[in-house]
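Problem 12. The chain below contains 510 residues. Write out its predicted structure in token notation.
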Amino acid sequence: METSRGELSFFGNKTAELFSLAIKKSLAGVLENNFQYGPDENIRGFVSASVEGRPWHNTMWSRDAGVFLRELAQWGYFEHAVLLAQNLIRLVRKNKDGYYTFPMYFKYGEPGCGSELDGTGAIVIALVLLWKRLPEKSEAKRLIYDFLFSEASPLSYILNMLDKYPLIPGSGEFGGGMDVDGEYFNAVQNFLVYCALASAESMAEYAQNKESAELLRNKEALLLSNIEKYFIGSDRSWIWCIDPATMKADPDVLNFRTNKGFAGINGISAMYSDVFGFDPLGSQWKYADICKNTFDVLLSNPQRRCQYEKYGIFTQFEELHGGYLSSPSYGQGYAIQHTLLYDLSNLYEKLIGFLVNSTFDVPEGYHLDRKYDYYFYERIMSPDFFAQSPNPAEKFDQGCGALNLVNVCEPLKIARLIAGVDDSDKNILKIIPRLPDGWIGFELKNWPVLTGMSLIRADILLEKDYDRYNFKLQFNDPVPRLEIVLNLPDGKLSRYPFENVRNTTLRIQL
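Solution.
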């Protein structure tokens, strides 16, 4: 089964080649340093948030594990994905209400439960992605289905909570926010739960479990209507979180130093694509304008705007670390995903450029422990932080450092978004390439693609020549419906439909 591992590389300029190297080597680094292969079943498949010597080593954070499982499934690392899925299901315990809900993190091989629903939502989405890609007779496929559709499953917990509350309360960094205790109704967390319900509904449809599909569909609609009711502000942007007791935003919480202008709210844009695909505008998504307004509000902050214009960094906080810090995940990573999904090429070119430059060339004064200079790391800093600080080492710490799990996962997803192979709709395969300026193509080898109920392999080579796109497509089984979506020079999208594609060369002139 592991022969289905996909490969992806970009070419055209140094940035494209360096990004390809960082993607390949960082994934390999995580599998070598963070992933556990031991005989103990509580350890086998466990993946540490950080490498040895850095904070949170030997803890598996639910949010990180969920997005890593997502990428393993999408890239075709099925044996690793199965081990991780089995470990997550093995370690999770029932909460006080009798439901399996994932904690903020598991200690090394120790069972647990909790109320960090963004982690639970990410894991549910990833389990569904993996389930769809596993063979029918796979024991892991049966394990995942039985877990998700049991009476005590995380889905059952969510459905039970929606019988009691209009939204789902949760804790952690995507609850009340980092360093904010207690449970809150959080916009990103609730949207991720909505995505989890939608993904599980599609799984029930695949399995012809019509009763569960209908129940999930009804609860999705209820949750989405309440997300719209409570989380859209007067400026038509997303509100970070509200107090469950008052059903209103608490200014003290919203203006807390870790929440004020927190770029993690772009996660709603990013997470949409995990379930609904890479084409929010073409799909006429109802909340596209809210996501765009939210991004624009964040970028209008003077410090963030200044740093973006100078370097291409999209800072993660307005105040924390002086407004100079970002990351390949919640700051720079989510911003890149948003701009890719909304075809903002003038923005994502600069944002991706900074991600690559900061990965290979850390600012003078930044002490970073890593074996190789192509490993992604947690805390990206603006050069201005070190230039303006007389003793930067006294004021800054590398934190989780190189190969921090979530900060490897989101660049892996960015690579998938740039190539744009979107199999989220079982009825049509889309290819929506979004190449930064100077990147002239990509090559996918042995890439796992879903068409209907079947998993097929794809080799795709794209070479861009000015205003002409040359695709060489090879599938081991025919693709019934294919649509190539290209961004025209005037910013509009043009769609090119094809049927019964197997081995062919397509030349598209814009």
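Discussion. DSSP finds 17 helices and 14 strands in the chain. Students who got a different answer should revisit the alignment rule from Section 12.3.
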